[in-house]
Amino acid sequence: MYKKSLIVLMLITLIGCSQKEEEVYLFSFFKDNGQDGLHLASSMDGLKWSALNDNKSFLTPEVGEDKLMRDPCIIKGEDDKFHMVWTTGWTDNGIGYANSTDLIHWSEQKFIPVMAHEPNVMNCWAPEIFYDETTKQYAIFWASTIPGRFPKSFHPKGRNHRMYYTTTKDFIDFTEAKLLYDKGFTVIDSHIKKDGERYIMFLKNEVNHDTLHKDIHIATSKELLGNYSEPSEAITPHWTEGPTCIKIDGEWVVYFDMYEDHKMGAVKSPDLKNWTDITETLDFPEGTRHGTVFKVKQSVLDNILSQKN
């Protein structure tokens, strides 16, 4: 009797594993200046990407001074909702936020004035969101310039960005913004992934001077919200920004916006140290700009594809 029960249990387990739903890759992005809103693309291998909805917007921006939807970052939360933050304008003191259960129908858009306590703040750019399973809260981080707060930088418009963050459990109440990353240079476009017991921050060194940067680096920390290391050597060419990363077949793949060349690029690495440029193998929809890569169940993509434009 015991052997029969064990065999039945094994069969049930095998059937359950075989029925586990496949996942696919999605990429959220904006086009042009971000005025028409959210765009999505899908991929089976992370290389060949197909625009969804005929490369038309899924969500039109409604909040912020300029009513833009640049740099859309989407993650799946513990509440089974997709949470998105974005840049609403060039000089706003806050960011945009909305959520969705299916990436088609979205909640009312909110403007979150994350830097309202800083009256001289010049901007809030490229926010990203991270769910911290340890504290059961969301961390949102972005780049801002506060005139006079840090030494002048070699930026054509005098900006000297640093990374800031806030946390929330419900997207209603937010902690006051705090400094996340300052290593003495202007920095934007941070993207964080967890790797075992450490956190990996991909960031853009925004310095434009004799020793030209404008490229992507890595910093690490044992804490999500502080104590990150000095940046690594650059892992991308100059004139790249908007890094977003995911593991594919055991390798780290970092996508980035080659904004001077008007195309997307990528590098991959098995160890975050040795990088191979795979830009020539990519195929992104025309006009793809800075975005975020993430996984969804096949049924989520099927539902999007089944909708009429």
Characterize this entry briefly.
This protein is mainly β. It is built from 2 helices and 19 strands. The protein has one domain (26-304): Glycosyl hydrolase domain, family 43 (Tachylectin-2, Chain A, 5 Propeller), CATH 2.115.10.
SSE succession: HEEEEEEEEEEEEEEEEEEEH
Number of helices: 2
User: Span from first to last CA?
Assistant: 57 Å
Query: What is the gyration radius calculated from CA atoms?
Result: 20 Å
Number of strands: 19
- CATH homology group: Glycosyl hydrolase domain, family 43
What is the annotated CATH architecture?
5 Propeller
**From the helix content, strand content and strand pairing, which structural class follows?**
mainly beta
Oligomer: single chain
| CATH class placement | Mainly Beta
Poorly predicted segments? 1-18
Compute the average pLDDT: 92
The count of domains is 1
Sequence of strands across the biggest β-sheet: 3-2-1-19
